[in-house]
Amino acid sequence: MTAVVSNIDPFEIHEDVRTEDTEVMVDDDQTEDADRATEVAAEEDEEEESSDEELVDTGVQVDMEKLQGDFPGFKDNYRLIKRIGEGTFSTVYKAEDLQYDRYDNFWDHEIDAKWTPPPLRSNEAERQPRRRPRFVAIKKIYVTSSPARILNELELLHDLRMCPSVCPLITAFRHTDQVVAILPYFRHADFRAYFRDMTIPDVAIYLRSLFLALMSVHAHRILHRDIKPTNFLYDPTTQRGVLVDFGLAEREGSDSKPCLCHETREARKHRQSTSVWAQTSTTPQPGYPKSDTRSSRRANRAGTRGFRAPEVLFKCTEQTTAIDIWSAGVILLTILSKRFPFFNSADDVEAMIEIATIFGSKRMKAAGLLHGCVFETSIPTIGQQGFSIEKIILWSTCRSDEKPLTPEERLAVQFLERCLELDPSKRITAEEAMNHEFLRVKDEPSSQEMGADEDDMDILHA
Ligand SMILES: Nc1ncnc2c1ncn2[C@@H]1O[C@H](COP(=O)(O)OP(=O)(O)OP(=O)(O)O)[C@@H](O)[C@H]1O
Ligand SMILES: [Mg+2]
Ligand SMILES: [Zn+2]
């Protein structure tokens, strides 16, 4: 059994860790200007290791021991350090990859060639170079997840392994019904800790990294479906980010049925004029038919509250990669408005109300009709016209009209408006986004920008 990453081999899951396999390991710490970067990385590793030594909760310790015990040979391959994430579908641990040197980590060989020793400090001149530990993230997928769903996540990750800014899958193991995915560990900060301090150029760099990932994911005709800050691991210091968590991802069209939004305008108009709604809408009382004989609509609405695109809320049966662009837009709206979470609805109806409050009932109605849905409301706070995004940002950051948006902020807002188009067919694509003035690489980027971009390419494109 093997999970060797190549174009021909089908994706397979290991039975246990003893099986011979080629691990594909990526080092997230090496950079091209090796001198300073290596030094910084070593310092950060030390910092990180000392923070890793914090006491691990007894419950977590028990879980880690169980995981180690379940997989024969696990202890020889990985040293579990701590729990780093507990999501809806998995628990993620940080671990040291003990056998890193035994494998052909082809992601890394170029980097090794570029490596030069860091400048020596006087008191360090005698020091032997220390072997840097290589970290991995071990994603223990809950056994309650369906096998089809687990396989889907692993297969998509395998397909996307060469995509820049997408966290690659090193390998995966299975023991009875327990599957673990091994990913390169990516150092990142908590979004809530840095998003309020981001400057507009910082935001552009952050988004360029996110849209770079989306561009390649979408080129593979894959919808991520759960774009949100916790699934985009970003390190503000190195200004590098990777997209993780393909647990809800799907291939475009895999679960689709034709929806009105993909028909011509004329065909749509015709269908609307002959609909049940058109025939009953002459009655003054808004509402819905008491005995509706139509079968109920079923559409994939998986995702995270507050980040769902309007077409997801309207149960569009033919969703596209445009849903991810909306969610990326919500991240940008969060950053610019300095409010997290920006949307805070308890359910999909409330989510529609939130969106309608901003965009107005007129545009929301048109957005619903695209998918054959009628949006009616008598909520007084939802106006016909809604508000401009610029106004929303000024209000939420408590800025008065005397302190209008700067030209660079205005450019960011123009970009945001393209991401938050209610009509998915009009929404900017990831590829177009990369060419938008807001994200376009400036002619003379700052050295930090240069470094950040090249690192992305280096590590995740290699
Ligand atoms: N490669 C990685 N490097 C570092 N940390 C990671 C990595 N992968 C995941 N994590 C951490 O674990 C968390 C959960 O991972 P992931 O999103 O893949 O799991 P999930 O169970 O689907 O989560 P959720 O339901 O919260 O979206 C991430 O938000 C992140 O903090
Ligand atoms: Mg997640
Ligand atoms: Zn639709």
Indicate the topology.
Layout (H helix, E strand, L loop, with lengths): L33 H19 L5 H13 L3 H4 E9 L3 E8 L11 H6 L20 E7 L5 H13 L11 E5 L2 E7 L6 H4 L5 H20 L2 E2 L8 E4 L4 E4 L6 E2 L13 H9 L2 H5 L29 H4 L8 H16 L10 H12 L1 H9 L19 H8 L10 H13 L10 H6 L11 H15 L1
Helix pairs in contact: 7-11, 11-15, 12-13
The chain binds adenosine-5'-triphosphate (ATP), magnesium ion and zinc ion (ZN).
Protein name: non-specific serine/threonine protein kinase
Keywords: ATP-binding, Kinase, Nucleotide-binding, Serine/threonine-protein kinase, Transferase
InterPro entries: Kinase-like_dom_sf, Prot_kinase_dom, Ser/Thr_kinase_AS
Question: What's the SSE pattern?
Answer: HHHEEHEHEEHHEEEEHHHHHHHHHH
Number of helices: 17
Q: State the major sheet.
A: 5 strands, antiparallel
Strand order of the largest sheet: 1-2-3-5-4
What are the low-pLDDT stretches, counting only 5+ consecutive residues below 50?
1-8, 16-38, 107-119, 450-462
SS-based class: alpha+beta
Share of helical residues: 25-40%
Strand tally is 9
Mean pLDDT across all amino acids: 83
Note down, in words, how this protein is organized.
- The model is unreliable at about 1-10, about 15-40, about 105-120 and about 450-460 (pLDDT under 50).
- It is built from 17 helices and 9 strands.
- It is of the alpha+beta class and about 450 residues long.
- A hairpin with a 4-residue loop joins strand 7 and strand 8 (about 240-245).
- The strands form 3 sheets. Strands 1-2-3-5-4 form a 5-stranded antiparallel sheet. A two-stranded antiparallel ribbon has the order 6-9. The chain has a two-stranded antiparallel sheet with strand order 7-8.
- It has helices at about 35-50, 60-70, 75, 110-115, 145-160, 190-195, 200-220, 265-275, 275-280, 310-315, 320-335, 350-360, 360-370, 390-395, 405-420, 430-435, 445-460; strands at about 80-85, 90-95, 135-140, 170-175, 180-185, 220-225, 230-235, 240-245, 250.
- The two termini are about 25 Å apart.
- The structure holds adenosine-5'-triphosphate, magnesium ion and zinc ion.
- Zinc ion (ZN) binds near residues 259, 261, 311, 316 and 371.
- This is non-specific serine/threonine protein kinase.
- Keywords: ATP-binding, Kinase, Nucleotide-binding, Serine/threonine-protein kinase, Transferase.
- It is an enzyme of class 2 (transferase).
